[in-house]
Design brief:
With 54 residues, the protein is an all-alpha fold. The chain has a domain of 31 residues. The chain has 3 helices and no strands. Helix 1 crosses helix 3. The radius of gyration is 13 Å and the shape is elongated. GO terms for molecular function: nucleic acid binding.
């Protein structure tokens, strides 16, 4: 896994678990929804920051 993978899961985890999960299907749906909501500009900006540190 790359630093960007860890960043992405950190962001997703906060968003996915911000409200109670009802079951496994609900968890899967929430992950898909939150992935769709993360704006590409956010990922591009954070990817640039991560790679500048290395």
């Amino acid at each position: 896994m790359t630093p960007l993978d860890f960043f992405l899961w950190g962001v997703l985890k906060e968003r996915v678990y911000s409200r109670p999960i009802l079951n496994r299907e609900h968890l899967g749906n929430r992950i898909v929804e939150e992935c769709a909501d993360i704006m590409p500009e956010t990922l591009d900006r954070d990817k640039t920051i991560i790679f500048k540190k290395n």
